[in-house]
Design a protein that fits this description.
The complex is a heterodimer of chains A (294) and B (514). Chain A contains eleven helices and no strands. Chain A is mainly alpha-helical and 294 residues long. Chain A has a single domain, classed as MetI-like fold. In chain A, helix 2 packs across helix 3, helix 2 packs across helix 11 and helix 3 crosses helix 9. Chain A starts with 6 loop residues before the first helix and ends in a 10-residue tail after the last helix. Chain B has two domains: 210 residues, Alpha-Beta Complex (Dipeptide-binding Protein, domain 1), CATH 3.90.76.10; 215 residues, Dipeptide-binding Protein, domain 3 (Roll), CATH 3.10.105. Chain B has 514 residues and is an alpha+beta fold. In chain B, helix 14 runs antiparallel to helix 15. In chain B, strands 8-9-10-1-11-18-12 form a seven-stranded mixed beta sheet, with helices on both faces. Classes of the chains: A mainly alpha (294), B alpha+beta (514). At the A-B interface, helix 10 of A face helix 6, helix 8, helix 12 and strand 15 of B.
């Protein structure tokens, strides 16, 4: 199979061919690049205080204005993107690494394993995500790692359930039965045969959970239980900026706008991805088997 | 349009105008005669109804449900209240009280000397005395001399001002309700409790048997908890409340600039950088003393409190007899002097950074000024983290002394100087932060000297000067600025504010021209 024919690349092309998704992906890419290169392309430090410029409105020197301690809001927004992206990536990784194997095992074996694992997932699912995260942070303390772990754990059920549903759907397909008949082990069936053919909804879930993770991290910071200051965080900036809404509306509005655009972009990308992958499956009636070579 | 319809419309307009004019007349009459409901917004729910639980949380309640033995005027002069007269013995070893004979509790029981004795007994008990307990320390015992006469005897001679401070601190509680006073108010105050909805509101009605003529001026007092300064401000601007009590400085200044009344009382608090000298690098005296220079008081006042207050390097309000403005010059923000002391401390940068600054996460001003200090420390190579906690978790840590350093206000700074010891960090005994025995015996001795110096003005002043020197040297509390507890912002049609020496809400004299 040539590179140009790889399903992932085909799907990516189809997604980016849509105007909305292209704009969303471009914004996210720009955000990621700027966040990554922040120390080299931004003149200031997000923690440097300069009280002479406290609450200064947007100007040539401070494009997004300055906060109550004279810190450049644009610099803090960019560094806040780092916080959000790291939290999102970490949370998705935790949720995926735990949730996907749970779904695989539960769906593949069924029976008591399925019952036990799914009830455990139900327990996590029964707790409102933000409350669960707050409780966890209350126990392990406030830090970026705590926020990341808390958000990641709340994402486990969605990965587990989607993966399980995919496994149940694929388990009786001919190509899986064929590998089974040829003596493929359970782990081979799960990780080499079924999992590579389940990636579509999982990928969509990755994008959706990234949006949820960023939003949840911001919500935790807004409620005062997120990453402690002075580490820049969009939620923390919204929380503080709220107190200065009359004197300096840009303080809360501009970070809020960036947060909104990021969530909107991820949501657009996720929805487009889901639509494209659905069409791809729908055109053949079943997912294209992949990675089943013995 | 038919003639009948025009007539009907005209009649309706006339009726509406008539009603409007009549309501205006009624409003004017109400403004003159009082009545109606005073709607007050507060930002934190009250804690309980015990007047000896002298927390700022309870400041909206205490002076409305209870009366104290005497009051202070705004300039600090003692005024009669439940005690119509008091006589301090020539040797300052006792004070005799004459109580009013026309006062009843909300239960209908008479307020008499036995009730005062029961209240004193509660205050003198370490289990029940709460914040008043420390103030009772000089009291040896008391005798009931008659139905409305009582004498307090002291362990030694104490200054007049300390005696009147004590009497002003005692709100008399109905003996029948003294055991349940935390949940059921039992006072003589101008208002009686109607209902408390936890976390939401406290509704009070005018006490029909109140002893002060013509008071309270309103029929009802409704205190609503908003929990958010902006929400309370919006409620005031939309006429959902008549005033905000205990709001933040920045919102208050903005509302003042929009035409609302800003009322600052005579009893501010002083913001203190409290230090647990038993922990980490703060066990080192020179490290602690460096904080006298490295706290940018002007910036803290401006950024955290919109400039409402004054900077101070000592824990006194400007009106305190122990206030000494020269300390503000001597200990002004100076990073070079701070660095000299830090270098002299002999601590390594890692050792200097080995602590966390506890912050009330629900208090944005505290978060801001803590970040300010964090930034200043970072300039000196000291990198500390903020430990943000909220609600009960924060309160427990603060009152229980479970912190290394924290910003928190202290009260009683405009009264007799030794009253500072009513604040937890400044307690001379049972100090929950510094423990027992008190690690700063010079401070304990300085407070004792202030308490027992009854000689000439020079001797008294020398005792105050000594206390100030010891406070700066011990440096377990670094004052930064005064700020208003109980800051009031009111609609233009609210009047009759009574300045309280502790900045408590005194609603009995307030009227609303609605």
């Amino acid at each position: 199979m040539s590179a140009s024919q790889r399903p992932a690349l085909v799907a990516a092309r189809r997604v980016l061919a849509r105007k909305g998704a292209f704009m969303a992906a471009s914004f996210l890419a720009l955000m990621a690049i700027v966040a990554f290169l922040a120390p080299w392309i931004l003149p200031g430090d997000p923690l440097t205080q300069n009280l002479r410029h406290a609450l200064e409105p947007p100007s040539a020197a401070f494009w997004f204005g300055a906060d109550e301690l004279g810190r450049d809001i644009l610099t803090r927004v960019v560094y806040g993107a780092r916080t959000s992206l790291v939290t999102a990536m970490g949370a998705v990784t935790i949720a995926g690494l735990i949730g996907v194997p749970i779904g695989l095992v539960a769906g593949f074996y069924g029976g008591w394993r399925d019952a036990v694992l799914m009830r455990l997932v139900d327990v996590i699912l029964a707790l409102p995500g933000i409350l669960f995260a707050m409780a966890l942070i209350a126990v392990i303390g406030r830090s970026q790692l705590a926020a990341l772990v808390a958000v990641g754990i709340t994402g486990i059920p969605s990965f587990a359930r989607i993966t399980r549903a995919q496994v149940l759907s694929l388990r009786r397909r001919d190509f899986v039965i064929a590998v089974d008949a040829l003596g493929g082990s359970a782990s081979h069936l799960m990780f080499k045969t079924i999992l590579p053919n389940s990636w579509s909804p999982i990928l969509v879930q990755v994008v959706i959970l990234a949006a949820v993770a960023i939003l949840l991290e911001a919500a935790l910071a807004f409620l005062g239980v997120g990453i402690p200051p002075p580490t820049p965080s969009w939620g923390e900036m919204l929380r503080t900026g709220k107190s200065y809404l009359y004197e300096a509306p840009y303080y809360a509005v501009l970070p809020g706008l960036v947060l909104t655009l990021t969530i909107l972009s991820l949501d657009t990308l996720g929805r487009t991805l889901a639509t494209v992958l659905e069409h791809r499956q729908g055109s053949t009636g079943e997912p294209e088997p992949e990675g089943q070579r013995l | 349009m038919s003639i009948q319809r025009r007539r009907l419309l005209s009649a309706t307009v006339a009726l509406s105008l008539g009603t409007f004019v009549a309501s205006g007349i009624n409003a004017t009459a109400e403004a003159q005669d009082g009545g109606g409901t005073l709607r007050v917004a507060i930002l934190q729910d009250v804690s309980n109804f015990d007047p000896q639980s002298f927390l700022s949380l309870n400041f909206p309640l205490i002076k409305n449900l209870y009366d104290s033995l005497l009051e202070y005027g705004p300039d600090g002069e003692p005024l009669p209240s439940l005690a119509s007269a008091w006589t301090i013995a020539d040797d300052n070893m006792s004070v005799s009280l004459t109580l009013r004979d026309d006062v009843t509790f909300h239960s209908g029981a008479p307020m008499d000397a036995e009730a005062v004795a029961a209240t004193l007994a509660k205050a003198a008990d370490p289990e029940t005395g709460q914040n008043v307990y420390a103030t009772m320390a000089p009291v040896a015992d008391w005798t009931v001399d008659g139905p409305h006469a009582l004498t307090l005897n002291f362990k030694g001679p104490i200054p007049d001002r300390q005696i009147t401070d004590l009497l002003q601190f005692i709100s008399v509680i109905d003996p029948a309700g003294i055991d349940t006073v935390a949940t059921v108010p039992a006072g003589t105050g101008a208002f009686t409790l109607v209902e408390r909805v936890l976390g939401q509101s406290v509704q009070m009605a005018a006490n029909p048997n109140y002893w002060r003529d013509g008071e309270p001026r309103v029929d009802e007092l409704l205190i609503t908890v908003f929990g958010d300064n902006d929400a309370a401000s919006a409620a005031l601007e939309s006429d959902a409340v008549d005033m905000i009590y205990g709001g933040g400085g920045r919102a208050a200044v903005r509302l003042r600039d929009s035409g609302y009344q800003l009322i600052q009382g005579p009893g501010p608090l002083v913001q203190i950088f409290r230090i647990n000298t038993t922990r980490g690098p703060f066990q080192n005296e020179q490290f602690r003393q460096a904080f006298n220079y490295l706290l940018d008081r002007e910036a803290i006042l401006r950024v955290g409190y919109a400039g409402l207050g004054v900077v101070t390097a000592l824990p006194w309000a400007p009106a305190s007899p122990a206030a000494d403005p020269s300390y503000n010059e001597t200990y002004a923000f100076d990073l070079d002097k701070a660095k000299e002391l830090l270098d002299a401390s002999g601590l390594s940068p890692d050792e200097m950074s080995d602590w966390q600054l506890l912050v009330n996460g629900a208090d944005q001003d505290a978060v801001t000024i803590s970040q300010l200090v964090q930034g200043t420390l970072a300039e000196l190579g000291i990198n500390v983290e903020l430990d943000l906690r909220q609600g009960a978790e924060f309160t427990d840590a603060m009152l229980g002394g479970d912190y290394t350093a924290i910003f928190a206000g202290i009260g009683n700074i405009q009264k007799f100087p030794s009253r500072i010891a009513t604040n937890s960090i400044y307690r001379t005994v049972n100090n929950p932060i510094l423990g027992e025995p008190h690690p700063h015996q010079d401070y304990v001795a300085a407070i004792e000297r202030v308490n027992t110096t009854l000689g000439s003005d020079e001797e008294v002043q020398a005792a105050y000067d000594n206390l100030n020197e010891v406070l700066v040297e011990a440096s377990f509390g670094i004052p930064t600025n005064t700020f208003d507890v109980g800051l009031m912002v009111a609609a233009p049609d609210v009047s009759g504010f009574t300045p309280d020496i502790d900045n408590m809400l005194v609603a009995r004299t307030i009227t609303v021209a609605r």
